[in-house]
Amino acid sequence: MADNELSDLQEELADARAEVERLQAAAADSQAQALHFQEQSTQVRQQLTAAQAELDTERERLEGLNGELSTVQATLSAAQGENQELHARLQAAAGKYREALLAAAPELPAELVDGGSIEEVEASLEQARQTVRQVRDRLESQAQAGRVPMGSPPRGAPDLSSLSPVEKIRLGLGRK
User: Domain boundaries in the chain?
Assistant: First the structure.
């Protein structure tokens, strides 16, 4: 039995050694994996640091662009205000120009001349002149058609051909 026990113990020892080797191999694998994960973790940290630096750079760039945008918006707002002021001045000048043109041409009705700019006033003025010319020409042609020549018509002998013989005798006796 001692041999049996020894043999059993040797088998247990061999099994224990195999288990130890297996555990050592598993531990070595675990250490290799841990080292690999540490390397990956280091790489990820480096990538994260680079990404944060890039993000900071882009944020600074964005702040710069926002500043430029604010400047451009302020410039645009000022230009729009100036544009509105110039438009109002243009309309006022066009109104004064219209009044001056109407004062120089009293034959034109004020209602026919309109416009918000000098060019519009001039175009409207030309159209008003054309309208007045057309109306004047029509009135003159109508007046010509209904006009009777001045003075008396030339005297001529009356046409007696349409009178009856009795009427001709009465006319003849009435002249004497």
Answer: 14-142
